[in-house]
Specification:
The structure is a single chain. This protein has about 475 residues and is an alpha/beta fold. It has two domains: about 160 residues; about 210 residues, Rossmann fold, CATH 3.40.50.150. It is built from 17 helices and 17 strands. Helix 4 packs parallel to helix 6 and helix 14 runs parallel beside helix 16. It is globular.
Amino acid sequence: MVVSKVEKTFYSFKDKAARVVKSDGVFKRFIHESYRAEFSHLVESGLYEELVSKQLIIPHIPLEGNPLPSGYFLQILPNQIPFLVEPFEWTFSEWKQAALTCIEINQIALKYGMILKDATPYNFAKVGGQMLLFDTTSFVYFVENDPWIAYRQFCMEFLGPLALIKFGGSVWSRLTRSFVKGMPLEFISKALPFASYFNLPCLIHVHLHSRFKPRKLENGKRKNSKGFTNEGLQLLLNSMATSLETWSPNYHAISLWDQYYDHDIEHAAYLSDKSDQISKWMERIRPHKVVDLGANTGHFSLLASLYCDEVLAIENNVDCVEILNRTIAEKGICNITTAVADLTQLSPDMGNGFQEIRNIGVRGNSDVAFALALIHHLCITFSFSFIQVIGLCKQFTSKFLVIEFIPKADTQAQTLLNTLPDVFDEYTEANFEIALLESFTLLEKVPISGTQRILYLLTLKHDGAA
């Protein structure tokens, strides 16, 4: 059998060095003949081995013996990314971690005579607490006295957004969703406050850099730009890394979230009883993946991590996510990935063919979805119907749903109603179950001690059947 060609895919349509394909849910990469020398140098020089040992790049294995398309010399199978969280779903700490990882990879690559030709955060993913490069074919030879080819891209897509988040808050991370190819430096410069002019990386690499324009062609040829020696570029990268290491956001996490479960629960036995019941269900199901919708500071994400391979914790409040990330790091937990996302305003499919960047429902789909202490926020604060809440949950689960019903009499629901007219006559347990059972089959229904709250374990109906 001979494979004649590999069609361009939405995952790698710009990369002439390789084609990324997805088959049966597994991503593979075909390496083009034109990239043979660079790829061989990456692997044989020791660069790839050092990057893998330092947990900076996704490992891969070659798939030998398979028929190859015309023009390709190798097929590789990278370690699969459990949950791909996009940059606009990162916290400040994750943006900073990714930027420093990009710099470190370039520093190491220069020792082996190579450099990254791209500097986009969309080539990085957080796996096991580490930011990893997954674009294996982004390395090219470094040529002495050439410009850093990805310098402007690094400033537009890494340094600029990080500076905006540092000085302006986490909303800027979400706004990068509108600039997936990078914000113009002129825009970033104008959006940064005056204080940023006293920050050396911002001054040099954003404000002053934004004033420079690409040189015009003369007689059909571009003027040679003065570039870097290997040593000179190392000095620049070291300077950037040293400065970024000291960066912290100009805002602070709201301390009340640290004690959320101590003070904002219905009854002393509530958390213990709820945790015990969910633990029993997880012990029985033993899922591969769990997604925790509205994870807060992650109590139940941490619980789920004991019973499954991978957990995705989705939370709208960036302070909660930073707290959870701290807990994950302190405890050395490697199977929880976090995402900052608003369940009422989920990102759509974007990019080439609306498939280059998929919505978080596709990327976060799991065996089990948790929707705990969530429904009253969606239905009362945001006026979701029960059908809409169930529809949201269905986007994230392929099999099981663990959902909690909070009645209007609950103190937390009453707190929400204090600032709103009570027009929620249809918000009843009976109506909730009617909506729920249209899409799911009930396995268990358990009241939670000392409260009127109810936990449900359900399985998704497929094609109208249980």
